[in-house]
Every structure is written in structure tokens, then in C-alpha cells.
Design a protein that fits this description.
Length: 179
């Protein structure tokens, strides 16, 4: 089940916190609870992506993006993800979650997120997400979002590794084969 209570608590904290710069890094603290684990008593890989939601949504709230989306009747969606799992997260481990917008292109906004084990300081996982605002007519170009959001915001150059991922995704066939 989706952790709506956790999302509500993280969102409520974000709404009360001071506004942050659009390209600043958002930090939150989490605990790996019993309902987050898989049969091997570690953080479930699917739940990891759900925990990343608990960083992206408050990031959008604190930066003021949610206000723009609500005003224009737009929603948010994830259009692709690449994730690395490097350290096991066990039940009751305390985690630090970092989320930041690293840039955008003509179609998508790219967000980097990482989970760090508080006791060892090791990075447990890191993800890059391709996200989009969507309206009645489909994907809203990031340039339109940024004009509405913060017209003075300078588009950062995407890192080489992100551009390589985008190029790799462009090579991937869609729809996939079913046989």
C-alpha cells in the first residue's frame, strides 16, 4: 500500500518550511520500517522508488513548483528512471534522502535523488528521474513551466552522464517487443 500518511506528514512539513531555491538540494530523513522490507529483510526495491516520492513531492512544494502546477491545472509524472542499488538497507535503518533538479531539456525535467545510510555515511542507492508536467494536451514543455515558475532561472547544463542516459533511452525501442 502507498504510504499516504508518510507523504502527508512530509508534505505538511514542507508546506511549513521556508521556500527554497528551485535548484537547491532538498534533504529529508527517513526510517526503513517493517512494511518497507522484502522477504530478505531489506528495503524492497519498489519501495525505494516510493520513498523517493517522499523527497520529490516536498521538493516541489518547497520550491513553489506545486503552486504553479495547481494554478495552471498541470500534474506531475515520472517518464523514466535509472537507479543504482549499492548498499543494503535493513529494517529500522535511518536514512538521509537528497533530491535536486539537475536540469531540463526541451521535454523533460531531470531530478537526481540518493539515499544515504546515516550510521555509515554510505550511499545505498541513487536514481535519476525524467519527469514531466502534464496538462490536457499532454506534456508541457519545461521552458513554459520555467517561464511561469521563475523567469530569471538559468537553465543548467545537464551533466555528461545524464546526456548519455538520455541518448541511450532514445535508442531503446518503443513499444517493446512482446515475444
Amino acid at each position: 500500500m502507498y504510504p499516504y500518511l508518510r507523504l502527508f506528514l512530509h508534505a505538511a512539513r514542507a508546506r511549513r518550511a521556508p521556500r527554497m531555491e528551485p535548484l537547491a538540494t532538498f534533504h529529508s530523513s527517513l526510517i526503513c520500517w517493517p512494511w518497507d522490507i522484502d522477504p530478505w529483510k531489506e528495503l524492497n526495491n519498489g519501495r525505494t522508488l516510493t520513498l523517493y516520492d517522499l523527497g520529490r513531492i516536498p521538493l516541489a512544494l518547497r520550491s513553489g513548483l506545486v503552486s504553479v502546477l495547481e494554478r495552471r491545472g498541470w500534474g506531475l509524472t515520472v517518464a523514466g528512471t535509472a537507479i543504482r542499488y549499492r548498499r543494503r538497507v535493513r529494517m529500522f535503518d535511518r536514512l538521509d534522502l537528497y533530491s535536486r533538479v539537475i536540469g531540463w531539456d526541451h521535454r523533460f525535467v531531470y531530478i537526481e535523488q540518493s539515499l544515504w545510510k546515516r550510521t555509515s555515511g554510505e550511499c545505498a542507492s541513487q536514481a535519476i528521474l525524467r519527469t514531466a508536467a502534464v496538462g490536457r494536451d499532454g506534456i508541457v514543455p519545461p521552458a513554459e513551466i520555467m517561464k511561469e515558475f521563475d523567469p530569471k532561472l538559468v537553465q543548467p547544463e545537464l551533466p555528461d552522464w545524464v546526456r548519455a542516459w538520455i541518448a541511450a533511452e532514445d535508442q531503446r525501442p518503443w513499444p517493446p517487443r512482446r515475444d
